[in-house]
Amino acid sequence: MTVSKAVLAYSGGLDTSAIIPWLIEQYGCEVIAVVGDIGQGEAELEGIEAKAEQSGASACYVVDLKHEFVERYAFPTLVAGAVYEGRYLLGTAIARPALARAQAQVALDVGADALVHGCTGKGNDQVRFETVYARFAPHVKVIAPWREWAMRSREELLEYIHARGIPCSASVQKIYSRDANLWHASHEGGALEDPWVAPPEDVWMRTVAPEAAPDTPQEIVLGFEHGRPRTIDGTELPPVELVTRLNEIAGKHGVGRVDLVESRLVGMKSRGCYESPGPHVLSEALRSLEEIVLDRPTLHYRQQLALEFAELVYDGQWFTPLREALTACCDQIAERLTGEVAVRLYKGTALPHRRRSENSLYSAELATFGADDVYDHAHAEGFIRLFSLPSRAAASKIELSETVLKEAVV
What we know:
- The chain is α/β, with parallel strands linked by helices.
- It has three domains: 5-174, 3-Layer(aba) Sandwich (Rossmann fold); 180-363, Argininosuccinate synthetase, chain A, domain 2 (Alpha-Beta Complex); 376-409.
- The chain is 43% helix and 19% strand.
- The protein contains 14 helices and 14 strands.
- The chain has helices spanning 14-27, 42-45, 48-54, 66-80, 91-110, 125-136, 154-163, 239-251, 277-293, 296-314, 321-333, 364-367, 379-387, 389-409; strands spanning 5-9, 30-37, 59-64, 114-116, 141-143, 177-180, 185-188, 218-225, 228-232, 235-236, 257-263, 269-275, 339-346, 349-356.
- A five-stranded parallel β-sheet has the order 3-2-1-4-5, with helices on both faces. The chain has a five-stranded antiparallel β-sheet with strand order 10-9-8-13-14.
- α4 (66-80) packs across α11 (321-333), α5 (91-110) runs parallel beside α6 (125-136) and α10 packs antiparallel against α11 (321-333).
- The chain is elongated, with a radius of gyration of 26 Å.
């Protein structure tokens, strides 16, 4: 198929910096770059249009997705309690559908005949991008250069762009593959490919080393409405500003670092270092609020949903009926999650140590170890007899069988 106009998901990083000239050389097509602003920071976005055009793009569109990303992707994931393999808060996995949908929309608007991404053939992101393309622009050709070109390493890509005079912040010394947005920053490759090597300190971008964090703890109070964070220390903030501010506060205390060897969708293990200072605090706080508001069956069911939600989103299935149904269920469960949680930040930890809600099911009168007038301890005997009835029934059957066996032997 001949390609005349290709729309590239562009970040200005090493991979996409090489893709623009490669597309022009390989396909002889016009290249339009699309940048999704999901809070990766001014440093990454500054001059990105000029850089794309200097690399050969005919145009570069920067689409502001920050509010949409937080409200429609990050917060629903937070409410669901979705954490992949126990520790990963899915920062990249929830960003890809937002970026790919915006890219597909631009492709439809400009009449492009190809959608292009810079994901490798080993990773999860290729699946995440292409499942969105299939949903919103199924008739448009997909080009994945990493599955086509002869280059096989980031070192080769560096040589390729240097030969063409294209600037890039990556270097042989700092060759990490990075991804950043409001929800997290991820780091892969380089020294991190050996799981026995501790992450060099130059890996981290958003958090100070816990041992270098302030010696004095800081308490912050987070307010939630229906499971969504709304206030910090009593001050209401818009979603983007709230996450940004919380990232700054928690990052100074070294909160939110994760060094994880995870199971990729394509079958291999990979190591990633993640920084999610603000989201880590929000997750800890919301889970603490759940403890006093949700009854046991509801809480445990929400925890089951979280596992399914996390795997579904990790596997690139955001725009599916099942994900929408899970979100609807989690939102219903979160209807009563309104209240405040005080979190203590100190040396890499975020400890919820005070919580309150008008919907709390906690009763000090019932839970007290002291004297009370509302709970009769004698009532527990009947409950235990009924609760243990299956065990006693099974025991009687065993005793009967053993008696019959002994009599038969005699």
